[in-house]
Design brief:
This protein is an alpha/beta fold and 314 residues long. The chain has 12 helices and 9 strands.
């Protein structure tokens, strides 16, 4: 939805994958003067329908007021920002604010933050919670840390991305929050798979069990929007096991550095590793239910019933 009076900022966006594309689209639809870079240009081209322009290199966004990045890994982030043709590679031409929405390590974020400061760019860490469908429904949430001045400047655009923005302070505090969030994601999906299989093996249809959970105090946005995948066994990827393992490993590394025991997270991480070891690399991480059922002697079948994801029609 267009902002009633969008700020007169020029915007840049790097990364139009499953999350980046709909997020960039929301900024364009909100009235942002948006220029976009993606490694595969064709994946960004549809954004021109909403008024965005496509550039050939991240460095072509150096003159933008605010540049967002949404990429898969720490190495990708450092490449598109500090690499030969990165957003911060041009002498004397850098954005006022760089906002990274990726889930990356605290070390990579700190390195980028220091390099940005040397070039006169303020950096915000703004990792997100949700998937592409959540973005389209306007239900994305963001946790943000960095200079308060930069946050205040960027807030209208951050709010245009979804429904909830939480400012948690200076530096990279948002990074550890998002890493904890994604570790919780791994724990919850494995627990949900285990209990759904247990209920089904005793004779309860998956859709009935999940309907009850979703209506109970244990239900959540997450359990609701994962219900169709678990019921229909449609594992079209929103987030892959490989990416989830990466985030589990980041969380466990942070726990080791702080001497925090994480026994439940370790078990969930190993279940995700087993899923990858069985060749499930590019499907949705809800595939964990398949492995759980196999280990339980249960042959899962898709249930052809109508179930809601809690997002449709919003």
């Amino acid at each position: 939805m267009p902002l009633s009076s969008p700020p007169a900022h020029t915007l840049g966006w790097v990364g139009t994958g499953r999350m980046g594309f709909p997020m960039a689209g929301r900024l364009a639809k909100a009235g942002g003067a948006l220029a976009v870079y993606n490694r595969t240009r064709a994946k960004a081209e549809p954004l021109t329908e909403y008024g965005a322009t496509i550039v050939g290199r991240p460095a072509d966004l150096a003159d933008r007021d605010v540049v967002f990045t949404m990429v898969s890994t720490s190495d990708d982030l450092l490449d598109v920002t500090l690499g030969q043709h990165g957003v911060l590679s041009r002498d004397g031409r850098t954005p006022k604010v760089l906002i990274d929405c990726s889930t990356v390590s605290e070390e990579a974020s700190a390195k980028l933050r220091a390099a940005a400061a040397e070039r006169g760019t303020q950096m915000l860490a703004a990792p997100v919670s949700g998937n592409g469908k959540v973005v389209k429904a306007g239900k994305l949430s963001l946790v943000v840390s960095g200079p308060k001045e930069a946050y205040d400047m960027a807030l209208p655009w951050l709010e245009a991305l979804g429904t909830g923005v939480s400012y948690v302070g200076e530096g990279d505090l948002a990074r550890i929050i998002k890493i904890c969030h994604n570790v919780f994601l791994g724990i919850v999906i494995q627990s949900l798979a285990e209990l759904t299989v247990l209920a089904e093996k005793t004779g309860v249809p998956r859709h009935a069990f999940l309907d009850f959970i979703n209506k109970s105090v244990m239900g959540s946005v997450f359990t609701r929007y994962k219900t169709p995948a678990l019921v229909k066994l449609d594992f079209t990827p929103t987030f892959t096991p490989v990416l989830l393992r990466k985030d589990m490993d980041l969380g466990l590394a942070a726990a080791r550095s702080q001497n925090v025991p994480m026994p439940v997270a370790v078990a969930a991480r190993e279940a995700i590793q087993a899923l990858i070891g069985n060749g499930y690399l590019d499907e949705d991480f809800a595939r964990l239910i398949t492995l759980q059922a196999r280990n339980s002697g249960l042959d899962l079948k898709p249930e052809n019933v109508a179930v809601e994801d809690g997002l449709s029609g919003r």
